[in-house]
TrEMBL record:
CDD domains: M23_peptidase
UniProt domain M23ase beta-sheet core: residue ranges: 87-185
GO function terms (MF aspect): metalloendopeptidase activity
Protein name, per record: M23 family peptidase
Keywords: Membrane, Transmembrane, Transmembrane helix
Gene3D superfamilies documented for this protein: Glucose Permease (Domain IIA)
Organism annotation: Micromonospora radicis
InterPro entries according to UniProt: Cell_wall_metabolism_enzyme, Dup_hybrid_motif, M23ase_b-sheet_dom
PANTHER family: MUREIN HYDROLASE ACTIVATOR ENVC, PEPTIDASE-RELATED
């Protein structure tokens, strides 16, 4: 009489098949947690020392910096005191990596040929730069698409765009911000506070740029 012969252990195979999806799920969960830690942990660390930010305009030029009610605390609007405003170079305040280079809101239709065209919304063409240590700067209302791209490393004083009036802007100017961690802070330039703090009333100061390329 012949007896049926089987090889292996069927129940063991079934348990292995059930364990595999759980193992894959666990591995995926660990990978997701590791990726999240890479993104989140830097924001839980205290900010580093303030970089030696410079004015975002050409070396030696004096510009008017100001604010007005409703502009938000620490927001700075830059207007040139002399010469044409449209198309003036906008420079990186400090070295860093570009994290945003695109459109904030809508562009509107204000151009050098039609300065009274319709306003857009938000910041128009803009750039954001990460300077390390949880410090960043923002540059809004640029004339045209930024001259830099996301992920690009820029040097202090490198041109990132041109002065314009895209977005919610009444005249060609540069809206500028410095941020430390999650919060906006008073902008400092060349180691000195700008003096633009609250927006309780309209006021301006004059600042001269030391954003000069060495050599």
């Amino acid at each position: 009489m012949l007896w049926a012969v089987t090889t292996g252990h069927p129940r063991s195979h079934r348990r292995s098949r059930h364990r595999l999806p759980r193992l894959l799920l666990a591995v995926g969960l660990v990978a997701a947690l590791a990726a999240a830690a890479v993104l989140v942990v830097p924001y839980l660390l205290p900010p580093g020392p303030r970089p030696l930010f410079q004015l975002p305009v050409a070396c030696g030029e004096t510009w008017q910096a100001g604010t007005y009610p409703g502009h938000d605390d620490y927001d700075v609007d830059f207007f040139p005191i002399e010469g044409e405003s449209w198309g003036r170079p906008v420079l990186a305040s400090y070295e860093g990596t570009v994290t945003v280079a695109g459109i904030n809101g809508t562009l509107g239709g204000r151009t050098p040929d039609d300065p009274d065209g319709p306003r857009g919304r938000g910041g128009g063409y803009w750039v954001k730069i990460d300077h390390g240590g949880r410090w960043e700067t923002q540059y809004l209302h640029l004339l045209e698409p930024p001259l830099v791209r996301v992920g690009q490393r820029v040097a202090q004083g490198e041109q990132i765009g041109r002065l314009g009036s895209t977005g919610n802007s009444g005249a060609p100017h540069l809206h500028y911000e410095q941020r430390r961690g999650w919060e906006k802070v008073e902008a400092w330039f060349d180691g000195q506070p700008s003096g633009i703090t609250h927006d309780d009333f309209e006021y301006t100061v004059r600042l001269t740029s030391n954003n000069c390329v060495s050599g």
